[in-house]
Amino acid sequence: MLHLNEHRVGLRSFHRGDWENALRYFQQVEPMEADILYYIGEVHRLKGDYDEAVNTFNLVIDQYSAFAPAYLSRARTRVALDPKAEVISDLDLAIQYDQSTFGTDPFEPQPEGIGSIFPLWVQAD
Question: How many Å apart are CA 2 and CA 93, to the nearest integer?
Fold first, then answer.
């Protein structure tokens, strides 16, 4: 049974940066669809639990291979773990599956307060 209230409270908690409550409410939602798994991965990433975040994004991609935001977030997480990580294939897949700037409104505030209107900063070597 879909728990709409838990979904809404989880999203509100997420947008407030209340990671613990967001995770608690998202984990109560059934069935566990791609968007909920994605948000769980984002909570782990934003908390700095990078290994758990990568595992969750892998689960999203295994179950929903065309879910573009999971590729972008997995790339962001892998760069957080290792700034020299090879993430081009994930970024290419994110573009392939979602042509709308990775599914992100460039003017939407980012939860971690990133100083750019774009979701990922890539420096040239």
Answer: 30
